[in-house]
Amino acid sequence: MRISADNLFSGKLAVITAALLLLLCMPVPGKADEAQQTEYRIKTAFLYNFSRFVVWPESAMQERSEFLLCTLGETQFKEQLDTLTGKTVHNKTIVVKRHSQPQEVLDCHLVFIGEQQDLTETLWTLQKQPVLTVSNIAGFTEKGGIIQFKLIENKVRFRINADAANSAGLSVSSKLLSLAIDVTGSR
Amino acid sequence: MPIDKQVASQQRIVASRPALARVLYIFQVVRSYSEVHSAAEMKTGKEMLQNVRPPQSGMPAHPTGLPRRLRRICAGLAAGMLTALSAQAATLDDTLPDDLTEMSMEALMDIEITSVAKKPQKKSAAAAAIFVITNDDLRRWGVTSIPEALRRVPGVDVAKIDANKWAITSRGFNSRFANKLLVLIDGRSVYTPLFAGVYWDNQDVVLQDVERIEVIRGPGGTLWGANAVNGVINIITKSATDTQGDMVSVTAGDEVKGIGVARHGGKLKNGIDYRVYAKYSDYDEAYSSTGAHDDWRSGQLGFRSDWMQTDRDSITLQGDYYRGKAGQQVSIASGPAGAPPTTVNQVIDDTETEGGNLLFRWSHMIDKSSGFVLQLYYDHVGLDGKVLYEDRDTFDMDFQHRFQWMDNHDVVWGFDYRFTHDNTDNNQTFELDPSSRSVNLYSTFIQDEISLQDNLRLTLGTKLEHNDFSGFEYQPSIRIAWTITASQTLWGSVSRAVRTPARGEHDVMLRLVPPPAADPGIPVYAEGDDSYDPEVLTAYELGYRLNHNNIWSTDVAVFYNDYDKLRTLDPSVDPGPPATIRFPFDNNMSGETYGLELVSQWQVGPGWRLNASYSWLDMKLHLDSNSNDSMSKSSEDASPSSKAAIWSAFDFGTRLQFDAALRYVGGIEVNGVDIDSYVEADLRLGWEAAPGLEFSIIGQNLLDNHHPEFLPDFINTRPTEVERSIYGRVIWSF
What we know:
The complex is a heterodimer of chains A (187) and B (734).
Chain A: H1 12-23, H2 33-53, E1 54-55, H3 58-62, E2 66-72, E3 88-89, E4 92-99, E5 110-113, H4 119-126, E6 132-135, E7 147-152, E8 155-161, H5 162-167, E9 171-172, H6 174-179, E10 182-184
Parallel strand pairs in A: 2-4, 2-5, 5-6, 6-7, 8-10
Antiparallel strand pairs in A: 1-9, 3-4, 7-8
Chain B: H1 3-14, H2 24-51, H3 68-80, H4 87-92, H5 105-110, H6 114-117, E1 129-134, H7 135-141, H8 146-149, E2 156-162, E3 165-170, E4 181-185, E5 188-189, E6 210-217, H9 221-224, E7 231-237, E8 245-253, E9 256-267, E10 273-283, E11 296-308, E12 313-334, E13 343-367, E14 370-384, E15 389-405, E16 409-423, E17 430-432, E18 436-453, E19 456-467, E20 471-485, E21 488-499, H10 503-507, E22 508-512, E23 524-527, E24 535-548, E25 552-569, E26 572-574, E27 580-605, E28 608-623, E29 642-652, E30 656-665, E31 668-670, E32 673-675, E33 678-690, E34 693-700, E35 706-707, E36 722-723, E37 725-733
Parallel strand pairs in B: 4-7, 23-27
Antiparallel strand pairs in B: 1-6, 2-3, 4-5, 6-7, 8-9, 8-37, 9-10, 10-11, 11-12, 12-13, 13-14, 14-15, 15-16, 16-18, 17-22, 18-19, 19-20, 20-21, 21-24, 22-23, 24-25, 25-27, 26-27, 27-28, 28-29, 29-30, 30-33, 31-32, 33-34, 34-37, 35-36
């Protein structure tokens, strides 16, 4: 058994250590939402890419002059989402809207569904509508949602329900399908 | 290389894989290193978000009022930039571009958010000297093995003894049996407890599947314990999720006769990602005027599977199996012990190696700032040569838990148990007593990382371990990092590290080739000694990092290492009969080393990156007054006092890449023999003929027909010289 303190914690160093230990009492204000900011910045960029790599039926595009990118219910998207305002997809200018009722998003091209939403009601309302549904909710694609974000090893990945996309009249590009961690339904 | 790919690779580096058990510390270091920069950038990012308006609004795009054009250039560069000094750069460039929508989806998928998520309040840098080699570096440097990849790392000496033997160390004390370095492959320790060094020819991975190699200079003893005295090299392979699809790679040339790799990555029905690979390497012999006989070949098979069982749990199972045959010529002093005349014979020895491992790891994330990792592995090493013989089985269990406490404490603690059992086949030259031995190693550690202020972070920790040779050892460290401004960090540390005795230092009886002056009739042995103690280091480090707008970055580290109880070999005469001269291992030397390491990266333009590294080292060793050792002190000359490298990565458009490097290594003296300084050049031309299909031609050590780099010690193998090497490589991913 050979524990000798050497000079590591003696003398001046001990004084410094003690002083530093005193400083420990000073808490640092937490900024726990910074991580989430990054996560949602990335997700914002994905929503933009989803808009680019999904083709909506003519009807959905002709009727509207703007590309409506919506959220439904409480989401953790903050101002990040607004950075998409003014960008163009499919020759339309993106407009970001926040809604709380499923009926209100029938006009939207893409809707991000908050985690508190009643999925059954929402998806029932949106079924066969040309609306690209996206959510974080676990099991979203199994329940009929089209794209579900999933964090894998702390990276943002996504799953796609191709059947749901088809029945909504949306055509998902093969690029998007190839990047998905899994694709359910027929391609 | 397209910008988004570069971003992808740089982001990948930062990716601290939570699933890495023993590596939590490194992982912390890397992450926090990047945080300094990313945290700073993050702030600007946020300000951006508040200030940016749609382009047509005509509002100033940046709060700092930088001219918009300059800013755009910066953003472009940031996106295209690789890690400060390659590796460093990787971590430095963790900054996300302001507008993520400009990134490709592939790049977006590679951004790791944990690095910030786990400790969002931290705003300071790693208090350690770290260099990261990325997957992209490995490709662009054109290297074929891990040792070759380490050549450009500042503070790390890489020298070839013959075609299949290397002397590799960090911060001095180089030797084939260099014993102050810890090397981990995916969390599995690969140094042999026999002599605390590494059989580098047996440490092979598919380089295309390596995510990154992290090199930490200086003690990592607090979290890793024994052997992380002067540095840690941590080789991390990609998750099977990231190696889906098939890849075939063929490398062929003169010195590298052929390396073939085939890998298949897929997904099982139940969501488990996997890859399987096979690799075969065949290397030509190096140069020797009298014939080298050091050609070697090895074959390796392996797999890795990763399973995200839930959002919070990930499970990894991986394994490898290899066999190899490495040639050498070895001088063996033979004849019955003590019976004159002793003869020294040079024999050709094809050492056969065989080994394998199986590793299981479970990482569980409790919440965003806490989690635990449990890792188990089994490792087998078999080596059968005319002198060295080792047959070893190791079982290791490691647990680490991390949590946050009182808002500003980030605590990691854990324990590790390792059992290793060896069998040796004694011969006239190399004998172990007992010939078979089991050794247990228990250790536990705790580390607390405390945010004193937004920009000031203190890390306190200690490891306590028990080994069968020297009993309990403790290894505390204190580190502090001060983020002076968003782009500058100053750090310092004091730590104690212990190099616990190797099995050989207690148990070996190694017959040495007698020095020319000695009476050849009397056998000479290096002899293990049960009272041999650990070597002890107290290290003082100071470092500074600067990252100027992601265009210029510099990382400087200086250190003062104070060693005690260094290994010596004091001669003693055993009158016999038969009479023998013995050199028992003892601890009669102390010493200091001083050094400076510098790396810089300059992003000259979007497709052109320049890097430079420089290291300076001074070693002063002092024999105790009662010591008559005439050999050990000479290791102060076996590491070059200076070493430098400069390299460039240039893209001609998106398809063609040109890489060039110039390396200087100062002169050394190994066991009284001078080895001259040398300058070598490496070149690579790469062409991406089609997506997934890359052709490259690589030249290494181009400036000389051949040059010597190092000499053997303890076991007298014939040293050979490194030759110019030219090879072509095809990588096809489909």
